[in-house]
Each structure stands twice: as structure tokens, then as C-alpha cells.
Amino acid sequence: MSQKVQELIQMGYSEDDALTCLSQNHWNFEKTVENLLTESPSGKEIKISQKTHDLIQMGFSENEAHTLAHNNWDFEKTVENILDEAYGEKNPEMLKKIQELIQMGFSEDKAVIYLTYNNWDLEKTIENLLSSKNEA
């Protein structure tokens, strides 16, 4: 089995869908991923990957969530890129919350991701960050 097929399987696609779509796209991996994000080769809606689902649950649009493929399925990088595009320069309220979490010892990336996941509710974010820190 080729590396490209294995990667698609790891992303949650069936071997049949991976092989079919790769062959339809002349083994161009990036184009195959774009096509699989839209629909399966058989024309049925595909299963959304867990990371895509999580982004949608966080309030991002499906189009924003599908940028995961362009970020090599890196969840944190995707969230950061979506926020950078959406807010450009972060508004003062967002910056204040991020800075407060950084002063508490959390990384900026972790602060932004947890704040986003908690709809920018600082208290809820702190609670979740502290509980995840205690579980580690």
C-alpha cells in the first residue's frame, strides 16, 4: 500500500475511497484531499474527520474547518490561521484575555485554542486549562 493511501486511511477515509480518488486525480495527493473533503468518489457525503468536527463544534464554519488539509491536519495551526484571518489584528478584549493566560504560564497557542473552544469565556477557559494541566 502506498504512503498516500496510508495517509488517507489515517485521516479516516476508506481504502476504497482513497484508491479511487487518488486514481481519479492522477495520484495528486493535495487534489485528492480537496476532492475527498467535498464528497466521496461514490458521490456520497463523506465522514468528517474528528478534527474537522471539533472545529465546527467550536463555532467555525465548514469551509474554515476544511482548511485543516491545507495545514497538514495540524489542529492548532488551523485554529491560529482561522483566527488570524477572521480578526486580523486581535481586538483589545481578545488580547487582554490571551495576555492574562500567558501571565499564568500558558503558551499563547494554548491560550488561543482554549479560549476559542470556550467561546472566549475566560473563567471557563482557565478552569479547563487548569484541569487539563492537573490530568497531565
Q: What spatial form do the alpha-carbon principal axes imply?
A: elongated
User: Cα distance, first to last residue?
Assistant: 36 Å
Number of domains: 2
Task: Give the DSSP E fraction (strand runs of 2 or more residues).
Answer: under 5%
Q: Specify the helix fraction band.
A: 55-70%
Summed over residues and divided by their number, the pLDDT gives a mean of 76
Q: List the secondary-structure elements in sequence, H or E.
A: HHHHHHHHH
* Largest sheet data: none
InterPro entries: UBA, UBA-like_sf
Domain UBA: 1-39, 89-132
Protein name: UBA domain-containing protein
Organism: Acrobeloides nanus
Q: What does this entry look like structurally?
A:
By secondary structure, the protein is an all-alpha fold. The protein is elongated. Helix 1 packs across helix 2 (15-24), helix 7 packs across helix 8 (108-117) and helix 8 (108-117) packs across helix 9. Mean pLDDT is 76; it is low at 40-47. The chain is built from nine helices and no strands. The longest helix is centred in the last third of the chain and has 14 residues, at 122-135. It folds into two domains: 3-38, Helicase, Ruva Protein, domain 3 (Orthogonal Bundle); 50-135, no CATH class. This is UBA domain-containing protein. Residues 1-39, 89-132 form the UBA domain. It comes from Acrobeloides nanus.
